[in-house]
Automatic annotation (TrEMBL):
InterPro entries per record: Aminotransferase_I/II_large, Class-I_PLP-dep_aminotransf, PyrdxlP-dep_Trfase, PyrdxlP-dep_Trfase_major, PyrdxlP-dep_Trfase_small
Pfam family, one: Aminotran_1_2
Keyword entries, A-Z: Aminotransferase, Pyridoxal phosphate, Transferase
Stored CDD domains: AAT_like (cd00609)
Protein name from the UniProt record: Aspartate aminotransferase
Molecular function via GO: transaminase activity
Length: 427
């Protein structure tokens, strides 16, 4: 079968429900899909990778949340691979993770405000598998899951795959609006099983949840018996402002805090190595849950990550990333000011990869899913707002990743985006 990607030019091409027109009576030529398959809605974010690969013209990529290629220590990985990979790297590993990597994660956190222990950890295939395990363990069909709005829809999409009802909670510059959460829960007449939050430099808004709100969320979680799903891939990438204590620092060993971590944003996403840090009573369940998915996380990748962190230089690597991402974020701010000016309002992240842009005035009438098509033709890509909200809100907004493009490319991208906005306004 040949897969034609050339047709992929609109968000709808990426967002169409994969079961549509496929599920039904085999006697009618359809396939007997499970009802669960209906919850597999696909990810516009992830699919943008194939979409961009299919373009034959030059496109400035503000879409995917990937680290800058230049920051990935490729040579170092190559050298380490030659040193550490042996026959033990190519057989099945322990489901919970390679002992050396678990120990490395414990040691690395011993001097941080969030120390941990081996019995709390399971190495996962990226942060995504940690999210999948969390929803698999805690969500029954019809359960309520509270998410930030906008949110990382791969996370909310995973909850939908397990049959969750999603409660979208508005955000402001301090992160999830906890008053609004209480009101919405009272209106819903039932409490959430899981409160899904990305506390630092949130994907997609770039905002950070304030300490006061973290404490209030913990109180609510205990009042309601909810799990706080603390998804923090970007916390190490703060380049401005003061550190905010994490859930695990505020409430050590809290059985209701389930933390998902990944090396994807600070080392490389292609490694697919992350970990879950959770109540030790869950460990056997997590292992059982992971065994049905992939037996173990890629062993060579675990050995490479272990050595990279062990050999020292990890903290310098992080410091280098923070400096570079600050430079790139400032460059994006400057290009936005030059080319879009008062036509947009943006968030002001103190770390991470993303900023969130909301169209203003006359431009607010432009639908960003349409703007996406025009922008793609003009040679620039972003993620439109509705792809970052389970119910398709934020037609007037979009996410830009400032991390993966150089300041020079960012400037070109913003020029093209301004042109695309002019064209969209004329329609
Ligand atoms: N959570 C958030 C908030 C993310 O931004 C990402 C990556 N885009 C993930 C989880 C998934 O991380 P990984 O690539 O390690 O699976």
């Amino acid at each position: 079968m040949t897969i034609t990607t050339a047709r992929l030019t609109t968000v709808d091409d990426l967002a169409v429900k994969p079961t549509r027109g496929l599920s039904g009576d085999p006697a009618q030529g359809l396939l007997p899909l499970a009802r669960r398959a209906d919850g597999l809605i696909g990810s516009v974010i992830d699919s943008s990778t194939s979409l961009l690969a299919a373009q034959s013209h030059d496109v400035v990529r503000f879409a995917m949340g990937a680290p800058a290629a230049e920051t990935v220590p490729t040579e170092e990985f190559r050298r380490i691979a030659a040193e550490v990979l042996d026959s033990s790297s190519f057989t099945y590993g322990a489901t919970e993770g390679e002992p050396g990597l678990i120990e490395t994660v414990v040691d690395h956190h011993s001097t941080t405000p969030e120390p941990t222990r081996a019995e709390r950890l399971v190495i996962t295939s990226g942060g995504m598998q940690g999210l999948d395990l969390a929803f698999k363990l805690f969500v029954d069909p019809g359960d309520l899951v509270a998410v930030e709005s906008p949110t990382y829809t791969n996370g909310s999409g995973t909850a939908l795959g397990y049959g969750a009802d999603i409660l979208e909670v508005p955000m402001d510059r301090d992160g999830m609006d906890v008053d609004a959460l209480e009101t919405l829960v009272a209106e819903a007449g039932r409490t959430p099983r899981v409160i899904y939050t990305i506390p630092n430099f949130q994907n997609p808004s770039g905002t950070t949840l304030s300490e006061d709100r973290r404490r209030r969320l913990l109180d609510l979680a205990h009042r309601w018996g909810s799990i706080i799903l603390d998804d923090d891939p970007y916390g190490g990438l703060r380049f401005a402002g003061a550190e905010v204590p994490g859930f695990r620092a505020i409430s050590p060993d809290d059985p209701l805090v389930f933390s998902v971590r990944t090396f994807s944003k600070v080392l490389a996403p292609g490694l697919r190595v992350g970990w879950v840090d959770a109540d030790p009573r869950l460990r056997k369940l997590l292992i059982a849950g992971k065994q049905t998915m992939d037996t173990c996380t890629n062993v060579p990748a675990q050995h490479i990550v272990e050595r990279f962190v062990r050999q020292g230089g990890y903290d310098e690597h992080l410091a280098g990333l923070r400096a570079e991402y600050r430079r790139r974020k400032e460059a994006m701010d400057a290009s936005i000011a030059r080319h879009l000016g008062s036509r947009v309002r943006t968030t002001d992240p103190e770390g991470g990869f993303f900023l969130w842009v909301t169209l203003q005035g006359e431009d607010a009438r432009v639908r960003t899913s349409r703007l996406f098509e025009i922008a793609l033709a003009e040679g620039v890509a972003f993620i439109p707002g509705p792809a970052l909200s389970p119910s398709g809100r934020f037609e007037d907004a979009f996410r830009l990743c400032f991390a993966s493009t150089t300041p020079e490319r960012t400037e070109v991208g913003l020029q093209r985006l301004a042109r695309a906005l002019d064209i969209a306004r004329e329609e």
